[in-house]
Amino acid sequence: MPTNLPPDALEAERRYRAAETIEDKIATLEEYIGRIPKHKGTDHLRADLRRKLSKLKEQSQGRKRTAKQASAYHIDREGVGQVVVIGPPNVGKSALVAAVTNASPEVADYPFTTWTPIPGMMEVGHVQIQLIDTPPLNEGFVEPDMLNLIRRADLVLLMIDLEGSPIQQLEDAVALLDRNRIALLHLQDRYDEERHMTFVPMLVLANKCDDEGCDEDFEVLCELLEGEWPILPISVTTGRHLERFKQTVFEQLDVIRVYTKPPGREPDFNAPYVLKKGSTIQDFAARVHKDFAENLKSARVWGSGIYDGQMVARDHVLSDGDVVELRI
Ligand SMILES: Nc1nc2c(ncn2[C@@H]2O[C@H](COP(=O)(O)OP(=O)(O)OP(=O)(O)O)[C@@H](O)[C@H]2O)c(=O)[nH]1
Ligand SMILES: [Mg+2]
After folding, report:
1. For the ranges 25-39, 150-164, 180-194, 277-291, which has the lowest average pLDDT?
2. Which of 38, 46, 84, 94 most suits a substitution to test ligand 1, by most atoms within 8 Å of the C-beta?
3. Residue 190: φ, ψ to 5°
4. Which tens digits make up the pLDDT trace of 174-214?
5. Is the CB of 46 under 6 A from ligand 1?
6. What are the residues whose beta carbons fall under 8 Å from the beta carbon of 266, sequence distance 6 or more?
7. How many other C-beta atoms lie within 10 A of the C-beta of residue 129?
């Protein structure tokens, strides 16, 4: 029993140990965790207890489960893509989600703050992208549902701390994912098919790059990684490179924004249609209305520098930012 805890925490621990039903155990354990002072000396204890709490909750759900009940990690996709922020403890994952989305996960200067995933929406150029804050990757135990959330993601942001030991953090995270058969999409060629890996697009964020003072550290990091990883320096605190970060996330989702232009009127740039990269006029027409898809007579495109109202065929491939006038 830890003896350096305040009396109310010890009392809560005693009640937790005495609890007999799962529901009681959950309630008393939550209380116990809430009373443990948050500092480095209690990190492991808190991480351990949260693991126990998750297991108890799973057991309790398993009992109640009649139909299939969703876990906290089953988050419906919203917006144009689901982007999952992962990484070791205390690197700034929650701070990022709090800074660029409408969600407000707890941010604190000690590790293991977050213990349940929290989604929020980030706007980039009138497009909404879903960002999900997650609990830290933990050598000892990663919830299977968390791994599935990563496998399903349209993009994974692996955050490391430029002020910590970024290479070690990256290697540990990659090894942990590898043990769970998750790997980086652009390194797919290196893997043996028999390992049945799931490949996910990933972008590494080197956070806490607060000012020019860290640029050299970042360059060294890039050299050590030998250009193998898509990596971006950011600072959530000072906002450095956050706009570039948003643009990069948008680009990695492989979607384009296309605007309609009613004949003789200006397009509404606040309301893009979002399509997969490579979509054609025909795909766009089908998205706008099925009448357009079936009875399309002509289409004109403004955009990409070379199209200034030119007529194009149904199989014309659109680019991000194109304005299209459809006629039936
Ligand atoms: N200097 C600096 N500190 C940062 C930056 N981003 C976050 N922090 C600080 O880092 C600490 C951890 O931030 P969190 O967002 O709670 O980290 P986390 O990765 O969510 O941590 P866990 O939930 O424990 O996994 C807090 O004290 C933040 O204020 C940054 O860009 N620069
Ligand atoms: Mg957090």
Report:
1. 180-194
2. 94
3. -80, -10
4. 999 999 999 999 888 888 877 789 999 999 999 999 999 99
5. no
6. none
7. 24
